[in-house]
Write a structure and sequence with these properties.
The chain has a 5-stranded antiparallel sheet, with helices on both faces. With 149 residues, the protein is an alpha+beta fold. Helix content is 42%, strand content 19%. The termini are close together. It has 7 helices and 5 strands, in the order βααβαβαβαααβ. The chain has a single domain, classed as Hypothetical protein yfbM fold, CATH 3.40.1760. The relative contact order is 0.26. The protein is globular and about 45 Å long.
């Protein structure tokens, strides 16, 4: 199953929880929609490594604990949506560095997936708006329905 990943800015985790699961963050928050997982992987490779921290600060949704290896049908960890807060180091790195500068942080030179650099530009803009507004960055993943596959 493919996932739709939206990176968005919000005041805090409770503001995000107030939207989920009934609504989609992209309908409420300033969002960069349909970000490739490869872009998020690259950000975790670049920014948290520089800040010596993990990329995610916390799971925002679902609020119930992870049930373990066997996730029952209908459980929020199986059905989604899922939302995560990105570490402040990710926000600071994106807001303070142009996309080409981010690539200079890359510790090794394997080829980037096609479109990765172009996808960083809207994320740096989103991060700048979040920083200017005293907000945080989050990302949400919603399972792609059969009609969207």
């Amino acid at each position: 199953m493919d996932d739709l990943i939206d990176v968005f800015r919000a005041r805090d985790a409770p503001a995000v929880r107030a939207v989920l699961p009934a609504g989609a963050p992209r309908e409420v928050f300033d969002t960069v929609p349909d970000v490739s997982a490869a872009v998020l992987d690259l950000l975790e490779e670049l920014l948290p490594a520089a800040a010596e921290t993990e990329g995610l600060t916390c799971t925002v949704w679902p609020t119930v604990p992870w049930p373990g290896c066997l996730v029952p049908a209908g459980h929020p960890w199986r059905t989604g949506p899922w939302a995560y807060e990105l570490h402040p180091a990710v926000l600071a790195g994106l807001a303070g560095t142009p996309p080409t500068g981010l690539l200079a942080l890359r510790p090794y030179g394997r080829p980037l997936p096609v479109g990765t650099l172009a996808a960083l530009a809207p994320l740096t803009g989103l991060a700048r708006r979040a920083a200017a507004g005293g907000e945080r960055l989050f990302y949400g993943v919603a399972p792609r329905g059969p009609e969207e596959a």
